[in-house]
Amino acid sequence: MAQPSHTDTFIEQRKTPYLVAVFGASNVTVSLPTVVAAVYNAALPPSEILVGHGPGRSYGTVAGCFLYSYPGLLKSGLLDHCRRFRAQHPEGRIDVLLTDIGNDLALSGQNRALHFWLERLLSGLAELDARIAVTALPVASVRAMPRWKFNILRHIYFPFADTGFTQIQALVQETQAQLEQWAAAGRFSLLQSERSWYTVDHFHLGLFSRKRVIRAWTASLIGRTETARKLPASGRQLRRLPLKRYWRLRTRKYPTRAQLELGHDCVLYYY
Length: 271
What we know:
Rossmann fold, 11 helices, globular
C-alpha cells in the first residue's frame, strides 16, 4: 500500500485539535524562541501553544525575581485553559512539559508544598488524559556546587530565602526521588539531565547547550517534523508578549492572558 506523502500527512494532522503546554521558569524565559519554535514544529502540528514562565517563578505561590513577581503556575490559568480545551475538543490531544521545578525548594526551604502542588497539577492533567513529561532536577550539577558559590548565588537569586547549603542538597535529592517514584508509577515520562548542560550557577542551561537540550526535551514528548517550518514570529515579538506579572512596588493586579497568532491555525498563549 502506498504511504501518504509528508504534505498529505501534515494537512490531515492539521484537522486534529492539539494543545501543547510548557510550565517553567527562567530556563523557559531565556530559551523562549527555542521553546516556541520547537513546539510549533511538533510532529503533530499544534493548534494551541500555552507557555507559563518567568524568572524565579513558583509552581504554587506568588514568586519572582528582582522587581517582578508572578502568580504560581498552578494558579495562573494554564490548567483551566487545558480543561476548556478538553471540554471543547474531547477527541483532541494534550501534551504537557513541566520543567524548572527547583525554584520552590530554594524559596521555601522545604519540599512538602512543592510535592503537594505537583500532585494537584499531575492529577488535574491526568483527568484530561494529557501526556506529560517532566525534566529531572540537575542533581549532579547541584552536588558539584561549592558552598561559597551557593551562598553568593542564594543572595542574588533568592535574597529573601534562608535555605542552607546542606538543606538544599537534601531537598533536591528527595524531590528527585519523588519524581522518579511518580515516573515509575507511569504518571509521566522523566527526562534526564546532565551536569555538563548547566552554567556556572549549576541550574541554568548553558548558552551552548540550551537549544540542543530544549529541542531534545520537547522532541521526546511531542516528536518533531521532518522538515522544520519557519516560525511566523520573531524572537523580539515573542519576548515582548506580556506575562502575568506585577511590579513588586506598585500593584498586585495581574494582566489578562496574552496571545499571539502564529499563522491562521495556531495561537500562542502566555500565562
